[in-house]
Design brief:
This protein has 398 residues and is an alpha/beta fold. It has 15 helices and 17 strands.
Length: 398
């Protein structure tokens, strides 16, 4: 692989504890109300220091603190964490620092402390404003707490807020799904993430799937109506599940979807790091169990480290970039994968034939059909022939 420069570099921090594990959640989260903040922060900083030689001289373009429920951590703990990270890393001035929060742990004084610590974007896991829907998916808050959380975040000084919503919930009607979204839009958040409930392996819902889930036709109607409502309210649909007011796109997530680099620290966190001088890209995964993670030292916190081959790079790039509604400039593939775009010719040709992609001289983007059948589109890039790489001639795109 031939890299001419480094991609942008983000930092993901995983805080793994929740008050209650939701039955649909497949993230690395662990139910607990008793954990040692200081011990975990110490482990995070030590974890980061282990990876510093891999990113010497590079600037951090964004930070995302996810979980779990990061808002279970005190304002003092978040302040200490960000202060310690600034001492180790080159932070881009004015960069986006996002933190996830749940309405069940919302508190104005805590939100103010996060804001004073340097967090400038809050992502609140509302999921629904309907009490029955929230109960059906195992959430610990109600609709009023959802409203209160948003108001408290505004009062704490947050001018950049994302609201997470889920539709196609057990027993949900089209009218209820629209009412949820209408309530969110009325609050005028800068960003809305709208997800269809999916039943993932290794979740309680997978073993005890609710009987009254909306069928595919109703779920599709919910999606279509919700997208129209968001568009009429001035939210730009820029990624499969993401909608933003002008200029309020999530910079950290855009870096993911554009196949940029990111450090990942914390229990179960993932990282992707490009090493241009060595012509390779590595992925790392941290130990999932918080106690094992904290008790380990040095590289012992890394449960897996592997180098991506050409086929891995091509598939993972397309897996992410084809989530973007406007697609990507073809030169980005060469920049972030170190491979010529023609490496993708066979699957791209098939996708064009199936009308899942549209192609211009410079850009490739999913069609409306491609976004609707996104999994089928992604599957075309699973088996790319890397044996003919030396026969591919590069091209330049303007």
């Amino acid at each position: 692989m031939n890299f001419t420069s480094n991609p942008p570099l983000g930092l993901y921090i995983h805080l793994p504890w929740c008050e209650k594990k939701c039955p649909y959640c497949d993230f690395n989260s662990h139910q607990s109300s008793d954990f040692d903040e200081q011990a975990y922060i110490k482990a995070l900083v030590e974890d980061l220091q282990q990876d510093l030689p891999l990113i010497w001289g590079r600037q951090i373009s964004s930070v995302f603190i996810g979980g779990g429920t990061p808002s279970l951590f005190s304002g003092e703990a978040i302040h200490q964490l960000l202060s310690d990270l600034r001492a180790c890393l080159n932070f881009n001035p004015g960069m986006e620092i996002t933190m996830e929060a749940n309405p069940g742990s919302a508190d104005e004084s805590r939100f103010k402390a996060y804001r004073n610590a340097g967090v400038n974007r809050l992502s609140i896991g509302i999921q629904s404003f309907d009490d029955r829907s929230l109960e059906n998916i195992g959430r610990i808050h109600n609709g009023q707490k959802s409203l209160d959380a948003f108001c408290k975040a505004r009062q704490a000084g947050f001018e950049n807020i994302n609201l997470d919503l889920i539709y196609a919930l057990p027993g949900q009607t089209l009218q209820q799904a629209m009412a949820d979204l209408s309530q969110a839009i009325a609050l005028e958040p800068e960003h809305i993430s709208l997800y269809q409930l999916t039943i993932e392996p290794n979740t309680l819902f997978h073993s005890r799937t609710p009987a009254d889930l909306p069928d595919d036709d109703l779920s599709w109607e919910m999606q279509q109506q919700n997208q129209a409502l968001l568009q009429s309210a001035g939210y730009q649909h820029y990624e499969i599940s993401a909608y933003a007011k002008k200029g309020q796109h999530s910079r950290h997530n855009l870096n993911y979807w554009s196949f940029g680099d990111y450090l990942g620290i914390g229990a179960g966190a993932h990282a992707k790091i490009t090493l241009p001088a060595e012509g390779r890209v590595i992925r790392q995964t941290r130990q999932r169990q918080p106690q094992s993670y904290m008790q380990s030292s040095g590289s012992g916190r890394i449960s897996e480290s592997r180098e991506l081959n050409a086929q891995d790079l091509a598939f993972e790039f397309m897996l992410n970039a084809l989530r973007l509604v406007d697609g990507f400039h073809k030169s980005l593939f060469a920049e972030h994968c170190g491979l010529p775009f023609q490496f993708l010719n066979k699957p791209v040709s098939k996708a064009l034939e199936l009308e899942l992609l549209s192609d211009t001289a410079s850009h490739l983007k999913p069609t409306t059909l491609g976004l609707q059948f996104h999994n089928d589109l992604q599957a075309l890039f699973l088996d790319i022939d890397s044996t003919r790489l030396d026969q591919v001639e590069p091209e330049i795109y303007f």
